[in-house]
Write a structure and sequence with these properties.
Blueprint (H helix, E strand, L loop, with lengths): L1 H24 L8 E2 L4 E4 L2 E4 L4 E2 L4 E4 L4 E4 L4 E2 L4 E4 L4 E4 L4 E2 L4 E4 L3 E3 L4 E2 L4 E3 L9 E3 L4 E2 L4 E3 L4 E3 L4 E2 L4 E2 L2 E4 L12 E4 L2 E3 L4 E2 L4 E2 L4 E2 L4 E2 L4 E2 L7 E4 L4 E5 L2
Parallel strand pairs: 1-4, 2-5, 3-6, 4-7, 5-8, 6-9, 7-10, 8-11, 9-12, 10-13, 11-14, 12-15, 13-16, 14-17, 15-18, 16-19, 17-20, 18-23, 19-24, 20-25, 23-26, 24-27, 25-28, 27-29
Antiparallel strand pairs: 21-22, 29-30
Length: 249
């Protein structure tokens, strides 16, 4: 009996491998890409590769029905990254951009990632609240450090040349206690808000940015800060909660 179970298991594995290979043959531009097997491709969505794309081994692509995903020229998807696009949604990634190893990315709205964008290892980018799905717009030249968490319960915009150090967190939702509620606050009413980080901003290591915050052009957030209100252009802020330290012009 054990032998039959083992044989059945390996038969299913072999069938899935052939299915993944078949799905890869349906991808537009696949002949111009470099793949390191195994690459898992599930779902009925459309995927298009630009020239010289690199898909490293162990990546998992989930393509929801009628979803459209486009990778630009020289795009790299790192090993063991999970990238899933929901039904009817779109993900567009520009040229010379990269998503590095061990990231978890779940697209539940229409997202756009520009050219020369780098998302480092072990980043988690998805909504952390059920039924709240914001869009993501990352402009050209953005750098996101290792272990970043970007909550997409509301919209997030990162403008040109934003830099984020390792271990940063962007939250777009929280919870508020409702009257006469006996729920713990993390299960109570959701309060969400978008986050916008403008051009040439640098976010230091271990910074937490809370819902509804906008950070102005050319500003700097010191390492370890918690940003709970909007920051004007051209200022250095730091602390818990973050406060203005000085002008940087």
């Amino acid at each position: 009996m054990l032998i039959f179970k083992l044989l059945f298991y390996w038969l299913k594995v072999i069938v899935r491998y052939f299915y993944w290979l078949y799905r890869l043959t349906q991808i537009k531009g696949i002949n111009k890409a470099r793949l390191e097997f195994p690459v898992i491709v599930e779902g009925k969505g459309t995927l298009r590769f630009g020239e010289n794309a690199i898909i490293e081994k162990g990546t998992e692509l989930g393509l929801g029905e009628r979803s459209v995903t486009t990778f630009g020229n020289s795009f790299k998807l790192g090993s063991k990254t999970i990238l899933k696009i929901a039904k009817d949604k779109t993900l567009q990634i520009g040229n010379h951009s990269e998503i590095n190893a061990d990231c978890e990315i779940y697209v539940n709205n229409n997202w756009e990632i520009g050219n020369n964008v780098s998302i480092a290892k072990r980043c988690a980018i998805f909504s952390r609240e059920k039924d709240f799905f914001g869009s993501l717009h990352i402009h050209d030249g953005v750098r996101i450090g290792d272990n970043a968490i970007i909550d997409l319960s509301d919209h997030v915009i990162l403008h040109e040349n934003v830099g984020m150090g390792p271990n940063c967190v962007i939250y777009t939702h929280g919870h508020i206690k409702t009257e006469n509620s006996h729920l713990p606050i993390w299960k109570d009413q959701v309060k969400n808000g978008p986050v916008e980080i403008n051009e040439n901003v640098y976010i230091g290591t271990n910074v937490i940015i809370l819902p509804g915050v906008s950070i102005g052009n050319n500003s700097i957030i010191a390492a370890g800060s918690v940003v709970n209100k909007s920051v004007p252009d051209n200022e250095l802020w730091g602390g818990i909660p973050a406060k203005r330290i000085k002008s940087i012009l």
